[in-house]
Every structure is written in C-alpha cells, then in structure tokens.
Amino acid sequence: TTCTAVIRIDGMTCNSCVQSIEGTISQRQGVQHIAVSLAGRTGTIHYDPAVTNGEELRAAIEDMGFDASVLT
Ligand code: 9UX
Fold first, then answer.
1. For the chain, which domains are there?
2. ipTM over 0.85
3. Which atom of ligand 1 is nearest to the CA of 65?
4. Which of 12, 25, 63, 71 would be 17's cystine partner, CB 3.0–4.6 Å?
5. What is the C-alpha to C-alpha distance for residues 31 and 27, in angstroms, rounded to an integer?
6. pTM
C-alpha cells in the first residue's frame, strides 16, 4: 500500500533547500518518493503507511528548520 501526504513547507527560498529536504526525507524508512515544489511551497510524499505517517514526515521536515503542516 502507498499513501500520499501533501505537506505545506514555509521557509524555502531557493532550490538548495528543495534538494536538502528531498535528500533527507527520501532516506527515511517507508518513504517511497518525495517531490518538493519551491513555487508551490509543498512537499508531496508517497509512503508506506505500515512504516510512517504524515505527521512523522511533517515533524522531520520541521526538525530541518522549516515551518511544516500537513495539508492532506
Ligand atoms: Mo536557499 Mo535554504 O537561500 O535555507 S539554502 S532557502
């Protein structure tokens, strides 16, 4: 099973942070794919719900220094 979380991410102003978030979050257990949009201020993450969840992924992004909230 794959679930999708869309997370609002504030605090990104250049592509360096996009790459940083994608690189760090993609290595987490259960994460199958992540795409971060700078213009859209969102991260779309496909994950295995047996392993992780939207809140945990949101917290991981927040721990990187961004303001993050789960949209869907
Ligand atoms: Mo770009 Mo990230 O200036 O802190 S490196 S947004």
1. 3-70 (3.30.70.100)
2. no
3. 4
4. 12
5. 7
6. 0.96
